[in-house]
Every structure is written in C-alpha cells, then in structure tokens.
C-alpha cells in the first residue's frame, strides 16, 4: 500500500511538470468560464517556491505554502512508515480541517479572480 502512495505522488508530480512544460491549462473552470479556480497558478507558484522565491510564489497562489507543508510532512511520514499519524490526525479533526479547507479555498478563489498574473 505504501508503494502505491509513493507512485501516485510521483505520477501527479510528473503530470504537473508535463502540463506546465507544454503550457497546458487543465482547469475546466478556466476553460469554460475564463475565470481562475482556487488552484490556478499553483504550478507556477511551486516552480518559484522551489527556486526559493517564496514571496513571488505567493503572488501566484497563496495555497502553495499550506499545501507544500502538508505534502512535505506526509512524504516524511510516508518514508519513515508513520503515515498513519497524519491519517489518524485527519480522522480525529475532520470537521475543523474541512472548515479550514473551505475558508482557505474561498479566500484563494476571491484573490485569484482579481489576480492579474493568472491571465
């Protein structure tokens, strides 16, 4: 099971890199209505974050920091075979995590709608 999770993470990462390289916008909301979704700009933000340009990456999408922190923690726990810790935490605090996720998503969506860098 652990091997499947690592493979899934790698597939997602490789797919994002390929889409970014070829300039493919795989966002149904943007393609249909020409408004950015809460996830728009995440690939560009990740690229800048990996270059150490934290403030610049936040200009593309503010969700890059919490997502990156969660992914890093999860990968570390996965590598030391303790991923059950984050899964137990998520089960125990499910309601508060959902509320925080919804609030962050709505805030990000509002910011993205007025973000000139995403067009």
Q: What distinguishing features does this structure have?
A:
7 helices, 73% helix, globular, 119 residues, mainly alpha
Share of residues in strands: under 5%
Order of helices and strands: HHHHHHH
In terms of structural class, how would the helical and strand content be classed? mainly alpha
Spans with pLDDT under 50 lasting ≥5 residues? none
Mean pLDDT: 87
Biggest sheet: strands, sense, closure? none
Question: What Rg, in angstroms, do the CA atoms define?
Answer: 16 Å
**Count the strands?**
0
Q: Can you count the helices?
A: 7
Characterise this structure.
The chain has 119 residues and is mainly α. It has one domain. The protein is 73% helix and 0% strand. It is globular. The model has no long low-confidence stretch (mean pLDDT 87).
């Amino acid at each position: 099971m652990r091997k499947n999770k690592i493979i899934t993470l790698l597939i997602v990462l490789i797919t994002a890199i390929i889409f970014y390289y070829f300039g493919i916008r795989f966002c149904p909301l943007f393609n249909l209505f020409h408004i950015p979704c809460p996830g728009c700009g995440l690939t560009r933000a990740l690229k800048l974050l990996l270059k150490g340009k934290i403030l610049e990456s936040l200009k593309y999408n503010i969700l890059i920091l919490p997502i990156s922190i969660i992914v890093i923690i999860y990968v570390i726990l996965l590598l030391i075979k303790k991923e059950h810790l984050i899964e137990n935490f998520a089960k125990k605090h499910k309601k508060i995590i959902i509320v925080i996720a919804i609030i962050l998503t709505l805030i990000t969506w509002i910011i993205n709608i007025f973000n000139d860098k995403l067009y």
